[in-house]
C-alpha cells in the first residue's frame, strides 16, 4: 500500500466517523457552541464569586485591625498568602474562558476592589456601633 492510498483511507474513515456522529447526534455542532458559551459563563460566574470572596476577606482584614494592630497585620499577611494560589487559579479559569492574559489580569485586579470595599465597610461599621449605643 502506498502513502497516498493510506492517506485517502484515513481521510475517508474520518469523514465516515463524522457522518455517523452527526446521524447519532444531529445537534453535535450546536452542543459544541453551547459548551463554548458555558465556559465563558463560568468565567463571569467565577468573577462574581471572586469579588464576593474578596469582599469578605476585606471585612476580616478591617475587623482584625479593630481588634488590634498586631492582629490586623497577621490577618492581612495570612489573607495575602491565601490569595496567591487562589488568584492564580482564578486567572487560569479566565484564560480558559477565552480572556486574553491582559484582560484576565485586568479583571483580577478589578476584583481586588471587593477587598478594599470590605475593609472600608468593616472599619466604618465600628462607628455605627458607637452611634447605636449612644
TrEMBL record:
Which PANTHER family has this protein been placed in?
ZINC TRANSPORTER SLC39A7 (PTHR16950:SF25), ZINC TRANSPORTER SLC39A7 HISTIDINE-RICH MEMBRANE PROTEIN KE4 (PTHR16950)
Ranges annotated as biased composition (Basic residues): 8-17
Q: Which InterPro entries does this UniProt record tie to the protein? A: ZIP (IPR003689)
MF terms (GO), sorted A to Z: zinc ion transmembrane transporter activity
Q: Which domain of life is it from?
A: Eukaryota
Which controlled-vocabulary keywords does the entry list? Membrane, Transmembrane, Transmembrane helix, Transport
Q: Spell out the residue ranges making up region: Disordered.
A: 1-33
Q: Where does the UniProt annotation locate this protein?
A: Membrane
What membrane topology is given?
A: Multi-pass membrane protein
Specify the species.
Triatoma infestans
Q: Biological process GO terms, please?
A: intracellular zinc ion homeostasis
The record's comment on protein family reads:
Belongs to the ZIP transporter (TC 2.A.5) family. KE4/Catsup subfamily.
Pfam families, per the entry: Zip (PF02535)
Q: Where are the transmembrane segments?
A: 104-125
Under which name does UniProt file this protein?
Zinc transporter slc39a7
Cellular component per GO, a single term = membrane
Amino acid at each position: 500500500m502506498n502513502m497516498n492510498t493510506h492517506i485517502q483511507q484515513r481521510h475517508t474513515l474520518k469523514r465516515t466517523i463524522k457522518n455517523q456522529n452527526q446521524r447519532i447526534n444531529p445537534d453535535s455542532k450546536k452542543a459544541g457552541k453551547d459548551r463554548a458559551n458555558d465556559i465563558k459563563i463560568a468565567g463571569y460566574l467565577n468573577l462574581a464569586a471572586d469579588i464576593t470572596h474578596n469582599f469578605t476577606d476585606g471585612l476580616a482584614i478591617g475587623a482584625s485591625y479593630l481588634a488590634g494592630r498586631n492582629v490586623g497585620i497577621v490577618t492581612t499577611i495570612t489573607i495575602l498568602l491565601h490569595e496567591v494560589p487562589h488568584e492564580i487559579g482564578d486567572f487560569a479559569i479566565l484564560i480558559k474562558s477565552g480572556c486574553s492574559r491582559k484582560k484576565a489580569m485586568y479583571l483580577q485586579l478589578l476584583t481586588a476592589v471587593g477587598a478594599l470595599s470590605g475593609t472600608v465597610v468593616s472599619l466604618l461599621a465600628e462607628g455605627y456601633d458607637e452611634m447605636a449605643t449612644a
